[in-house]
Amino acid sequence: MKAALMHAFREPLRVTDVPDPEPPAGGVVIRVGACGVCRSDWHAWMGHDPTIRLPHVPGHELAGTVAALGAGVTHWRVGERVTVPFCCGCGRCQTCRAGYPHVCDAEYQPGFTGWGAFAEYVALPYAEVNLVRLPDALGFVEAASLGCRFMTAFHALTAQGRVQPGEWVAVHGCGGVGLSAVMIAAALGARVVAVDLDDAKLERARALGAEHVLRSAHPVGAILELTQGGAHVSLDALGSAATLRNSVRCLRKKGRHVQVGLLLGESRPTALPMGEVIAKELELRGSHGMPAHAYPQMLRMIAEGTLAPQRLVGKTLTLEEAGAELAAMGRFAPRGVSVIVL
């Protein structure tokens, strides 16, 4: 098969022929139809993830068709159209049994723990508890765009942020995660303030449902004023020391901060305004993907037209273009979701 192979960190990917994967016991091989290019892939390419062993194939936002079944797989058939959370739980550990396979003690992440989907085929373990059937009306490009960013934003707002109609939601950073969060929060009936430094991204945020947009590196005062006391829920959708602090500090009393953007590299050591956390009795939560069993609510909203992830797709790419798009993530250049079509 053809795959975009990473031989060294921060160097161009090379599309080359590699052996086709075999399905592991309890797992499957997926014929990849589409795969998103995500900032998490950029972190991997930069060498920020210690789990990666070179040579490596990135890619975790995938959709495709079941091509082969491993021993013991009974709930799936060759030819079924599927997607998968980027964090695949084992289904056996205490965390999985409690209903949280997306934070499994023995999680498997395609494109990180093992080779990913910047390739014609990808092998996945734990198929019985992680694969998600795709509705016939949902194409592979749109399904791949759900991948890491959209479903993480959905989980962040519904499960972690517990957003209610009429509440104020602040979204810091309007890349793929942030724009997804704007659309989802608006669909949930929230009033959204979107923050970024890029006018074009803010225009898209407004088109996706943001009531207010702020082009500012210091938005706290403006958010407190616009919301008459602060946001009920605030997301750091970028992942930096500055956006994290802004997100916490723009909350009203009893507000909920959700950290979605990864704090890696230079942003890893981050000071929090704990005085405000204590005085306002704020909640601080992380959001790490979404379990497969939570997909039906999101897919229903898509089927009803309440959510339209296809509006977030900025462009489609060939496998040969994946490396350049990945490098561009470091400049925050892509607008919307970029998807490789195979």
Automatic annotation (TrEMBL):
<dbReference type="InterPro" id="IPR013149">
    <property type="entry name" value="ADH-like_C"/>
</dbReference>
<comment type="similarity">
    <text>Belongs to the zinc-containing alcohol dehydrogenase family.</text>
</comment>
<feature type="domain" description="Enoyl reductase (ER)">
    <location>
        <begin position="8"/>
        <end position="340"/>
    </location>
</feature>
<dbReference type="InterPro" id="IPR013154">
    <property type="entry name" value="ADH-like_N"/>
</dbReference>
<dbReference type="Pfam" id="PF00107">
    <property type="entry name" value="ADH_zinc_N"/>
</dbReference>
<dbReference type="InterPro" id="IPR011032">
    <property type="entry name" value="GroES-like_sf"/>
</dbReference>
<keyword id="KW-0479">Metal-binding</keyword>
<dbReference type="InterPro" id="IPR002328">
    <property type="entry name" value="ADH_Zn_CS"/>
</dbReference>
<dbReference type="GO" id="GO:0016491">
    <property type="term" value="F:oxidoreductase activity"/>
</dbReference>
<dbReference type="Pfam" id="PF08240">
    <property type="entry name" value="ADH_N"/>
</dbReference>
<keyword id="KW-0560">Oxidoreductase</keyword>
<dbReference type="GO" id="GO:0008270">
    <property type="term" value="F:zinc ion binding"/>
</dbReference>
<dbReference type="InterPro" id="IPR050129">
    <property type="entry name" value="Zn_alcohol_dh"/>
</dbReference>
<dbReference type="InterPro" id="IPR020843">
    <property type="entry name" value="ER"/>
</dbReference>
<keyword id="KW-0862">Zinc</keyword>
<protein>
    <submittedName>
        <fullName>Alcohol dehydrogenase zinc-binding domain protein</fullName>
    </submittedName>
</protein>
<dbReference type="InterPro" id="IPR036291">
    <property type="entry name" value="NAD(P)-bd_dom_sf"/>
</dbReference>
